[in-house]
Design goal:
Length: 134
């Protein structure tokens, strides 16, 4: 299970860093210009700027990812559940994003794969937890 845990750690670090890189510019400049994101991407969403999506991205995928990472590194009880939850949050974020912008780009596929990896690793680590406690 060390390999599964290492994969989960790598995925959480990747998600946390890349979410920060995406969220901070959206919060600093809600027009999306810093990331070359046109405002018409928000046409079918309830948002008039990228500020709220940036805050949600920072909270749900960056900060939560790093918080889960601390649980994993400290081997806190049920950390596998938290890994799987982060995968579900990421999958939900990407799904809602696809629906709102009405297009799929390559990055969506990458992050859906990361979400699947997190859910699967979390499930495996959760399944292994009772054995490790004995």
């Amino acid at each position: 299970m060390m390999i599964v845990r290492a994969i989960a750690i790598a995925a959480l670090i990747f998600l946390g860093i890349t979410s920060m890189v995406g969220a901070v510019p959206l919060i600093i400049d809600p027009s999306g210009k810093m990331l070359s994101m046109p405002m018409n991407l928000l046409e079918h969403s309830p948002f008039s700027s990228f500020l709220i999506p940036g805050i949600i991205l920072l909270t749900g995928n960056c900060l939560l990812s790093f918080w889960v990472l601390t649980k994993v590194l400290r081997k806190r009880p049920r950390y596998g559940d938290w890994i799987a939850l982060q995968g579900c949050v990421l999958a939900g974020w990407i799904t809602v994003q696809i629906v709102m912008i009405r297009m799929v780009i390559w990055a969506h596929c990458v992050y859906l794969a990361v979400a699947a990896i997190l859910v699967f690793c979390g499930w495996l680590l959760r399944r292994d937890a009772p054995k490790a406690a004995n």
